[in-house]
Amino acid sequence: MTDEEIVKKIQQGQYLLYTEILKRYEKKIYYYIRRITSWDQLSIEDMTQDTFIKTYRNLQSFDTSKKFSSWIYRIGHNVAVDFLKSQKRPSVSLDGLEEVLVSKQLLVEDMAILESDKQKLAKMIEMLPVKYKEVIVLYYMEEKTYDEIGEILRIPISTVGVLLLRARQKLKQFYEKK
Q1: How far apart are CA 134 and CA 137, in angstroms?
Q2: What is the CATH number of domain 97-177?
Q3: Number of alpha helices (DSSP H) and beta strands (DSSP E) in the chain
Q4: What's the pTM?
Q5: For the chain, which residues score pLDDT lower than 70?
Q6: pLDDT for position 96
Q7: Which is nearest to 133 in space by CA: 86, 178, 84?
Q8: Where do the DSSP E strands lie in 56-156?
Q9: Which of 78, 79, 70 is nearest to 149 (CA)?
């Protein structure tokens, strides 16, 4: 059963099916929030829980003709951003990002990254503005499409492409300076 079919049944009163949504997305949302914040595990768990509470509360308003994963990631994004604003600590955790980027050969081609430079890449990504880090995390780590990233961040698809291009260009500049 698709996510959208499950949500439709929940909207029709089969509330126990929400546990299936939890099973499918708990780890994904947790790791997404962890990657875009650098808070302690307890705070990340709280943000994840808050995401699922808000998702459940607003499930009746979800349009089942749209993609559920983009919708729940958007809620997780908003929860994390709200938390970061309230705590005044804007930082991003790049746990494992350098391996994903290098293994996918997407930045490797642009920068000829050597195995020994993976840590440098993580530090360079940390230097990027948040708008670039978000698209890097969503595209490379969460493997979201441009459409999905656009929905999550509420930006046009063309802007997603521009942000990814600029992020890669900035990383290349950082790399060449080092």
Answers
A1: 5
A2: 1.10.10.10
A3: 10, 0
A4: 0.71
A5: 38, 88-119, 178
A6: 55
A7: 84
A8: none
A9: 70
